[in-house]
Structures are given as C-alpha cells and as structure tokens.
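REVIEWER CHECKLIST
Item 1: Sequence provided? yes
Item 2: Single chain? yes
Item 3: Sequence as submitted:
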Amino acid sequence: MPEPILISIATALSTKAATTLFELVKKKFSKDPKAAAELEAASPDKPETISAVAERLEAAGKEDPEFAAALRSEWSQHAESGGVTNQVSGTVQGNVVQARDIQGGISF
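Item 4: Structure as written out by the authors:
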C-alpha cells in the first residue's frame, strides 16, 4: 500500500489541476507506456485509477530517489501555493466535510 502522501499526490494528478506536478510525473512516466496510460486515465471518480498511479509513484520513487525528492518538493510547493487536495477513502457512514477555509459554522 503506497504512503498516504502518494495517494494524495495521485489524486491531485488525476484532476490535472497541479500542472507542474503533472508535467513532472508525465515526463517520468513517458518512458513506460503503461504508466503513462494509467496517469492519463486517472480519475477522481475511479479510486482504482488513483491507487494505480500511487503505486507507480511509489515504485518510481524507490527506483529513482532524485525523482522521489523532486516529487515531494513539487508537492510541497503546490500545497504552499494554496493547492488543496482533500481525500476520503474507505466507507463513510455519515457526513463528511472537505474544506480549506471556513468562515462561520457548518450545519448538517
């Protein structure tokens, strides 16, 4: 099972909103057509595709420590610049709130 941070990164990659992060991974995966296809197919609506990308990231990081360092550095910059990635996994029984800045209360 990949580290939770890799699942968060994979989730962000699936939205293709974190462009510099996406380009870093796309470049790394370009040498492996199957990995590149999994990256392109990743979707927040399909958790299995997120898991597949996270596993690829884990393997690539173990194989290439420089890539792992660049990935985490880029992720940190994404998070510091206001990029927000919320993730809920597993079965949820009840309400879930995913938010960044909340002004006031939350009611269900």
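Item 5: Key structural point noted by reviewer: The chain has a mean pLDDT of 86.
Item 6: Recommendation: ____
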